[in-house]
Amino acid sequence: MAVADFQTVIGLEVHAQLLTRTKIFCGCSTAFGGEPNTHVCPVCLGLPGVLPSLNRRVVEMAVRTGLALGCAVRPKSVWARKNYFYPDLPKGYQISQYELPICEGGEVPLTLDGVERTVRLVRIHMEEDAGKNVHDVSADGSSGVDLNRAGVPLLEIVSQPDLRSADEAVEYLKSLRAIVMALGVNDGNMQEGSLRCDANVSVMRRGASEYGTRCEIKNMNSFRFLRQAIEYEVRRQVELVESGGRVEQETRLFDPDRGETRSMRSKEEAHDYRYFPEPDLPPVIVEPALVERLRAELPELPRARAARYQSALGLSAYDAGNLVADAAVAGFFDAALAAYGEGAEAAKKVANWLTGEVARLANETGEAAASWKLTPQKLAAVLRLVDAGTIGGPGAKQVVEEVFRTGAEPEAVVKAKGLAQVSDAGALEAAVDKILAANPAEVEKHRSGKKDLTGFFVGQVMKETKGKANPAVVNALLRKKLGA
Amino acid sequence: MSSSSLSLEEVRRIAALARLRLAPEEEERFAGQLSAILAHVEQLKELDVSGVEPMTHALAAGEVPALREDAVLPGLSPEEALAAAPAREGTAFKVPRIIE
Questions:
Q1: Under an 8 A CB cutoff, do A269 and B89 touch?
Q2: Best of A143, A252, A276 to disrupt the B interface by mutation (most B CBs within 10 Å)?
Q3: Same domain (yes/no): A359, A406
Q4: Which of A252, A271, A290 marks a domain boundary?
Q5: Are residues A280 and A308 in the same domain?
Q6: Tell me, what DSSP letter sits at residue A4?
Q7: Would the CB atoms of A83 and B19 count as touching at under 8 Å?
Q8: What is the 3-state secondary structure (H, E, C) of B36-76?
Q9: Structurally, how many domains does chain A consist of?
Q10: Which residues form the domain of A316?
Q11: Is the pLDDT at A252 greater than 60, yes or no?
């Protein structure tokens, strides 16, 4: 098989759940979880005789996103009904936008292998989410339908087929995720499905001028699954073409357990959606004054923020990129740096803790930065304790972990756990003397020039003092006693 | 397509998309009725409306439709929501097994 003889062409459709309090067309809560059908009303249940009424915040968030991505915002856009039958769609149609979406054009920046580029967008439109089917709810194999999610507002962000590899598709999604999170329109939680994507994938022989037939892959709710699904699908299509077959245009579902995509026959005939203008909703009018207000309110976007971290604070591209991937983490960084100090050295220290130990703890607990018990002030306090020599590196790590888990004050943790370093030369001298007396052979070697044995002595003193000795003081004592 | 007559096959397809089961005589009858409607639209298409913006709603010039504030309103209890459901499982609507 010769995947290398083929060019992969990918376009992504990203669905981003908007961070509104209420649903798009009714006043029901958008809260995630909860017992089935506890956030429902006649509108989102699709009962007869009701009228949808559009949530102002949905329009504002759509325009905000469009402006951040350089889209043209339509002064007048129109709702459409997309007709199909599925148990999670109570009305028998989804209210979406079709011919006249709220935003068109625009682009998403991405960096791959150090090269910056942009991926063009086709459009961004607003629509309502469907409910959730729960499989195998009872012994007879029936399914259950929960309509808490029905009517939750979504933005569908559609790219041009500008992506050329699974890696590029993943970077595109990462960049877009960081942007919608920075805009405060989406929480970036892919596991819970508040950000998810479909991929249109096709292959063409290198040098060919026409795209191959594409397949649409659904159900990818992580970066890893997106990469796996595209890589599998590319291999499948290349094998098909190489063996003289033809790719059929179809919808395929990614199965994460098998790492495969498979045909969704059920979706085939439903593809005729018979869109028509939604009679129950007037057009969406976006006035110039609203556009200007929202433009003025745009926050600093991830790419600009990362550039600033590099040029003004001297962070590496890697650290800067890690920090801005989550606007809440970047905000934490800014606050912690302000509380701690100024300049490149301080910035580097704060960044190291955030992208290292703190990121590890956050991954482990799955806690979003907004709800960390470790505050920027507390992280700054830990750094000051290190600078003052009160605690050493290993002690600081324990303090950060304890503060992250419990929210305790760093000084209190140092006391409670007995982590304070011993910096008093008088108190450490006995330990140094004991180690030197116990290792006469090493002392002799050191005197005759084997200076790298200093590390051995420091290690022994640390062991003797249960890690509490200040290494700098121990080093000074050793120099004095062994001769420089 | 300029022809405004609808074949029986097209009628069946539209009926299937709308989840309608039609008797053979209904297929015949609706093919005739739908063709007549299409013929009427064909006739309307003779008018030159190239300079007219399509109107989907009766909106006065300069009118900006009101939007709803993003504030939670009371909805239905699960009991009320499920009152007319043919079957339930807990507080979920129970439906025949969905196979993907």
A1: no
A2: A143
A3: yes
A4: A290
A5: no
A6: G
A7: no
A8: HHHHHHHHHCCCCCCCCCCCCCCCCCCCCCCCECCCCCCCE
A9: 3
A10: 300-416
A11: yes
- Interval A255-291: pLDDT, tens: 999 999 998 865 555 568 999 999 999 999 999 999 9
Q: Are residues A279 and A345 in the same domain?
A: no
Tell how far CA A299 is from the center of its chain. 18
Question: A121 with A12: CB under 8 angstroms?
Answer: no
Could you tell me the CATH superfamily of domain B1-47? Glu-tRNAGln amidotransferase C subunit, N-terminal domain (1.10.20.60)
Interface membership of A324 toward B (CB under 8 Å): no
* Type of residue found at A339: A
**Using the beta-carbon criterion (under 8 Å), do A142 and B92 form an inter-chain contact?**
no
Spatial separation of the C-alpha atoms in residues A84 and A99, rounded to whole Å: 18
Nearest residue of chain A to residue B19 (CA atoms): A85
CA dist., res. A409 & res. A400, Å (int): 10
Write the DSSP string, A270-335: GG----EE-TTSPPEE--HHHHHHHHHTPPPPHHHHHHHHHHHH---HHHHHHHHTSHHHHHHHHH
Secondary structure (3-state) at A254: strand
Domain boundary among A360, A395, A416: A416
Contact B95 A282 (CB under 8 A): no
CB-based burial label for A244 (10 Å; 0-12, 13-18, 19+): exposed
Answer yes or no: do A23 and A168 share one domain: yes
A440 with A394, same domain?
no
The answer to whether residue A57 is domain-embedded is yes
Q: What is the ipTM of this complex?
A: 0.91
User: b/e string for A23-47 if b means 16 or more Cβ within 10 A?
Assistant: bbbbbbbbeeeeebbbbbbbbbbbe
What pTM does this model have?
A: 0.86
Partner B contacted by A73 (CB < 8 A): no
Contact A35 B72 (CB under 8 A): no
Q: State whether A277 and A340 are in the same domain.
A: no
Residue A295 lies in a domain: no
- Of residues B3 and A461, the one with the higher pLDDT is A461
- Does A139 lie in the same domain as A158? yes
| A-chain residue closest to B60, CA distance | A282
A89 lies within 8 A of chain B by CB: no
Question: In the prediction, which pLDDT does A421 show?
Answer: 82
> Is A31 part of the contact surface with chain B (CB cutoff 8 Å)?
no
Helices (H), A130-263: 166-182, 223-242
Nearest Cα of chain A lies from the Cα of B57 at a distance, in angstroms, of 6
| Residue among A22, A85, A145 minimizing CB distance to B72 | A22
Chain A residues close to B59, C-beta within 8 Å:
282-283
Give the closest residue to A259 by CA, choosing from A226, A308, A304: A226
Do residues A214 and A203 make contact, with C-beta atoms less than 8 angstroms apart?
A: no
Instruction: Clarify whether residues A385 and A453 are in a common domain.
Output: no
A41 contact B CB<8A: yes
Identify all chain A residues contacting B94, using CB atoms and an 8 Å cutoff: 137-138, 142-145
pLDDT in tens, A234-251: 999 999 999 999 999 999
A76 touches chain B (CB under 8 A): no
| β-bridge partners, A43 | none
